[in-house]
């Protein structure tokens, strides 16, 4: 049972007060947010109100949902009723409070989750660290001045700092998996289309997904069951599991020695538990991220060109440039990328024919520093996460170790399309055999 | 220098066709990406399957 499920069980049984739990998380948020900038808006009043209503319902003996009392932060790219959705952009600084919840938040509320508020993110989910956006950059709890990655960085920071029990993030090319890895958490990118996107500010719609960030894969599974409406998979054993390593992709990402060693150690731990590790061929490995670049940039330009024409000065320079570069892609290249994408999808499916899942590091290095981050996205950015966004496959990052600067590293596991629940069960088994990385020193307290 | 100015003029033209005017620093930045863009486009186009 996940930690979240255990907490829900106590709340349902009446042995844990959801109001007290909410107050604890509000206190942590008040103490940490001024240093970590995880949350753009905290819905303290509605959180207290909803927690009190839940407590009263439980006291009356009424049934409570599968996320009863779970404190969840929501990336500020998804509508939460009563709060404006800004995507940390001046473009939406005057946005009115959303009238209704986005579809994903509505599913959480229907399961009796409690919404903490809106989490910080890179402006328009594009790139960061968004120094010239309305909210200051979120700070990684694992080190003062450490970059939490992005774009769903506030979501990860809120969980890592104990402000929320879980968070919703968005992932177009790694925006859930990378901040989760850098903050020592689990982050799950579902199969494209599994979680509804209604009420979310898009970046590139054929790539965008919504998924959970939480301390463990088991916690992600508990939240994802609600988000997707698909039952969790029963526990699985690692014995007999066939894990494929796409060696060409691994080498192309040029991992640091520390990441390479950590990945080797993770594979050995999985093998020690009975899994078998296989190199799998991916002849077109070098094409995935170039194809991704054309797809993502052309879609983003198509979606936001009107804003570039009328309100470009209300976007930061990085966002303007990231959207505008799509204008420089000829139509023929966009069409070619669409065809290539189908070929790459077939190639990856073939690579997985003889294995159950794939494994790679989540990132080629540990988290960097906020003041050193190179923000503009290029075809070689996020080399390990974008290929699986391009083809829409489910993927999860789980903590695998610490780098030379004592900042977390992530192991990424990738499943077949629509085998999300199985992948989460495998990741739950995997994290049990990987060394625990602990929690960050609370330097901000 | 002429090459840079030509690249910037091309960027301005493409953006103007979409009704977009960006600060000069953005135009220069985008123009500086032309080698990366050309390489990406060439690679994708050569690899795309043909019917």
Quick recap of the structure?
The complex is a heterodimer of chains A (445) and B (51). By secondary structure, chain A is of the alpha/beta class.
Task: Describe it.
- The complex is a heterodimer of chains A (445) and B (51).
- Chain A has 445 residues and is an alpha/beta fold.
- Helices cover 39% and strands 14% of the residues of chain A.
- In chain A, helix 7 packs antiparallel against helix 14 and helix 10 runs antiparallel to helix 12.
- The two termini of chain A are 31 Å apart.
- With 51 residues, chain B is an all-alpha fold.
The major β-sheet of chain A equals:
11 strands, mixed
How many strands, which pairing sense, and closed or not: the largest β-sheet of chain B?
A: none
Order of helices and strands of chain B: HHH
User: Stretches of chain A where pLDDT falls below 50 for ≥5 residues?
Assistant: none
Radius of gyration of chain A: 20 Å
Q: What is the tally of helical segments of chain A?
A: 14
Distance between the termini of chain B: 42 Å
Please state the CA-atom Rg of chain B, rounded to the nearest Å.
Answer: 13 Å
Distance between the termini of chain A: 31 Å
* Percent range for β-strand residues of chain B: under 5%
Average pLDDT metric of chain A: 96
């Amino acid at each position: 049972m996940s930690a979240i499920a255990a907490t829900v069980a106590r709340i349902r049984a009446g042995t844990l007060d959801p109001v007290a739990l909410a107050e604890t998380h509000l206190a942590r948020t008040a103490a940490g947010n001024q240093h970590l900038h995880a949350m753009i808006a905290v819905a303290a009043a509605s959180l207290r109100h909803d927690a009190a209503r839940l407590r009263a319902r439980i006291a009356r003996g009424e049934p409570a949902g599968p996320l009863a009392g779970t404190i969840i932060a929501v990336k500020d790219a998804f509508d939460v009723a009563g709060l404006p959705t800004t995507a940390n952009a001046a473009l939406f600084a005057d946005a009115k409070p959303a009238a209704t919840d986005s579809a994903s938040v509505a599913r959480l509320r229907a399961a009796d989750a409690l919404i903490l508020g809106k989490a910080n993110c890179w402006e328009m989910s594009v790139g960061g660290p968004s120094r010239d956006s309305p909210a200051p950059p979120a700070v990684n709890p694992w080190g003062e001045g450490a970059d939490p990655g992005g774009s769903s960085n506030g979501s990860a920071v809120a969980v890592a700092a104990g402000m929320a029990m879980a968070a919703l993030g968005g992932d177009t090319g790694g925006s859930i998996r990378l901040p989760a890895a850098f903050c020592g958490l689990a982050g799950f990118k579902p199969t494209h289309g599994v979680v509804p996107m209604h009420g979310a500010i898009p970046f590139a719609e054929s790539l965008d997904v919504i998924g959970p960030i939480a301390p463990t894969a088991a916690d992600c599974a508990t939240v994802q069951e609600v988000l997707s409406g698909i039952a969790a998979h029963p526990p699985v054993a690692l014995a007999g599991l066939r894990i494929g390593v796409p060696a060409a992709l691994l080498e192309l990402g040029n991992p640091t020695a520390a990441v390479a060693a950590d990945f080797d150690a993770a594979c050995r731990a999985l093998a020690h538990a009975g899994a078998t590790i296989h190199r799998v061929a991916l002849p077109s490995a070098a094409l995935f991220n170039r194809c991704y670049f054309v797809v993502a940039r052309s879609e983003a330009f198509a979606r936001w060109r009107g804003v570039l024409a009328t309100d470009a000065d209300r976007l930061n320079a990085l966002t303007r440039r990231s959207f505008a570069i799509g204008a420089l892609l000829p139509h023929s290249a966009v069409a070619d990328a669409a065809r290539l994408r189908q070929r790459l999808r077939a190639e990856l499916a073939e690579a997985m024919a003889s294995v159950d899942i794939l494994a790679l590091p989540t990132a080629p290095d540990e988290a960097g520093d906020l003041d050193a981050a190179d923000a503009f996205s290029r075809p070689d950015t996020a080399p390990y996460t974008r290929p699986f966004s391009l083809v829409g496959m489910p993927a999860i990052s789980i903590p695998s170790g610490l780098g030379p600067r004592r900042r977390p590293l992530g192991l990424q596991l990738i499943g077949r399309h629509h085998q999300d629940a199985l992948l989460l069960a495998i990741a739950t088994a995997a994290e049990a055999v990987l060394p625990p990385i602990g929690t960050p020193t609370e330097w901000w307290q | 220098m002429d090459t840079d100015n030509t690249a910037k003029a091309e960027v301005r033209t493409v953006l103007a066709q979409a009704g977009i005017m960006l600060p000069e620093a953005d135009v220069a930045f985008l123009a500086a990406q032309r080698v990366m863009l050309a390489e990406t486009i060439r690679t994708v186009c050569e690899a795309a399957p043909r019917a």
